[in-house]
Specification:
The chain has about 325 residues and is α/β, with parallel strands linked by helices. It has helices spanning about 15-20, 55, 85-105, 140-155, 180-185, 205-220, 235-245, 260-270, 280, 295-300, 305-320, and strands at about 1-5, 25-30, 45, 65-70, 110-115, 160-165, 170, 190-195, 205, 225-230, 255. It has a domain at about 1-170 and about 200-230 and about 290-305: Rossmann fold.
């Protein structure tokens, strides 16, 4: 059976492809870029631009292909307000529409599709289950929610679509937004927190994301949505304090009035000088923890990596990068 991974050269895809190969499947990576990855010795690569329907159609999807859509624009690099819609929507929304159209023409009914927990917006109930109200706070979350709405239409036409909503993904390959944190710690500068730091912060390992996608296929691609996050995330204060101690830094944690910091960041955003995206800072002091028990019940998926270990491993990788040493496949690096 062929497994086609759109965006497969990216963060989750480069860990999903070897898993599928190990299971004995034929794997095709469809992406606009090709990295120097070892598994390309056994994986076919097709240069595909998901924003171009003719490019997607040229792949030649077959009726019995298993499709994964991991192509997306993320929150890094940060965009100014006026450019956000045009940055996120062509790939996240129109690219998804093009994949669905190509699947429909081929009669291919099975898709695993990644969206984001940011479709939820502010915390209404805690922990957030998959039926939590959706009210995204910006164009990234809105674009991902739109793809879920499109998926609902195709489900009604007979497709099987498993949706995954990950928290902040950590793993080999990217530094992303956490690089700013690591620099503060390296420079022994105060590390400001939005709020008191008593609220938890939840990551998810890229390895756990790839395994969830594999298990969705093994389970027959359920027409369901699943949260992806770690188990028992610690408070921000503990998470950052442990990292500072590990790094041997003299940085101190600096609690701030959350409302005042958010209004300041709002002003900077309005002035086209964003430091963070509103979708990041508006929920920074909330208890944004997703419930992942549905994935265990229905897919047998249990996250294997702890937040504390992931963040420290990410900092190790940051240090290796600064020192010009090679990235190892088994280490963890943060992403968006």
């Amino acid at each position: 059976m062929r497994h086609i991974i759109f965006g497969g050269d990216g963060f989750v895809g480069r860990h999903l492809a070897p898993k599928l190969l190990a299971d004995g499947h034929e794997v095709i990576v469809a992406d606009i870029v090709r990295s120097d990855l070892a598994h390309y010795r056994n994986v076919r690569f097709e240069r595909i631009d998901v924003t171009d329907p003719d490019s997607v159609a040229s792949l030649g999807i077959k009726a019995d292909d298993m499709i994964y859509n991991l192509s997306a624009k993320m929150l890094s690099p940060i965009q100014v307000r006026a450019k956000r819609h045009d940055f996120f929507w062509p790939v996240n929304v129109h690219g998804t529409e093009n994949i669905f159209d190509a699947m429909d023409k081929a009669g291919a009914p099975k898709l695993v599709h990644f969206t984001t927990d940011m479709i939820y917006g502010h915390t209404v109930t805690w922990p957030m289950t998959e039926d939590h109200p959706v009210a995204p706070l910006g164009e990234y979350g809105a674009s991902k929610l739109r793809t879920e709405e499109i998926a609902a239409v195709w489900r009604g036409r007979g497709m099987n679509i498993s949706l995954f909503r990950p928290r902040l993904i950590i793993g080999p390959g990217r530094l992303g937004i956490l690089e700013k944190l690591f620099k503060l710690i390296d420079w022994n500068l105060p590390v400001p927190m939005i709020g008191s730091g008593r609220n938890p912060y939840q990551f998810i390992s890229v390895f756990d994301c790839a395994e969830a996608a594999r298990l969705a296929f093994k389970a027959g691609v359920p027409n369901e949505a699943y949260n992806l996050g770690s188990l028992n995330p610690p408070p921000v204060r503990k998470l950052l304090g442990d990292l500072i101690r590990y790094a041997g830094s003299k940085s101190i944690l600096l609690p701030t009035p959350g409302w005042a910091v958010k209004r300041t960041l709002d002003l900077l955003d309005l002035m086209n000088m964003p430091i963070m995206d509103p979708e990041q800072y508006l929920i920074a002091d909330e208890d944004c923890v997703v419930d992942v028990s549905k994935g265990e019940r229905e897919l047998g998926w249990i996250p294997q990596y702890r937040d504390e270990d992931m963040l420290i491993a990410a900092y190790k990788e940051y240090r290796l990068k600064k020192e010009g040493r090679a990235l190892t496949a088994s280490s963890h690096v943060p992403a968006e």
